[in-house]
Write a structure and sequence with these properties.
There is one protein chain. The protein contains five helices and seven strands.
Length: 158
């Protein structure tokens, strides 16, 4: 798997990809959101992953993990999610959080447990999704998940 950092030129294409996957588009162009895409040999996005760190760097919101239809049974989603988790751990985060109403079993296989959505919002109050969900009232309809990152890479990101 070869992941590439999303640049400004990729944002519209990623936006379309995530829209087809029914994932939130909030904050994709914010500098605090780190995003990566995987492309097929023709250059089409077939997977994405991302994260956003808290102001103190101790927490990471995992987001935008998506795999193109037809490629979902090959472990691509797990690889993409692990990439974001590893990057978060390398950056110094101690805990990962995410929102997911539909993919709980997937995230549980990666060590996540259901968490309090308000605890997520308290840990990552400046995250784009948190701010948007709080402002629109959507936060109370979301399902939060969390896991520690202590078992992942302790090496600082370079």
């Amino acid at each position: 798997m070869s992941l590439h950092v999303v640049s400004g030129a990729d944002t519209d294409e990623l936006r379309s990809f995530l829209l087809e996957s029914d994932l939130t588009l909030t904050g994709l162009d914010d500098d605090a959101v780190r995003l990566w895409v995987e492309r097929d040999p023709e250059g089409i996005i077939i997977g994405s992953t991302g994260l956003e760190l808290s102001a103190d760097g101790r927490h990471a919101l995992i987001r935008s993990v998506a795999v193109a239809p037809g490629r979902r049974a090959a472990g691509a989603g797990s690889r993409l999610a692990r990439h974001a988790l590893d990057r978060a751990a390398r950056a110094g985060a101690e805990r990962a959080w995410l929102f997911s109403r539909r993919s709980g079993p997937f995230w549980q296989r990666l060590g996540f447990a259901e968490a309090d959505r308000h605890a997520l919002a308290a840990a990552l109050p400046d995250a784009q999704q948190v701010r948007s969900f709080t402002e629109t009232g959507q936060l109370d309809r979301e399902v939060a998940w969390s896991r520690t990152l202590h078992d992942l890479s302790p090496h600082p990101e370079r």
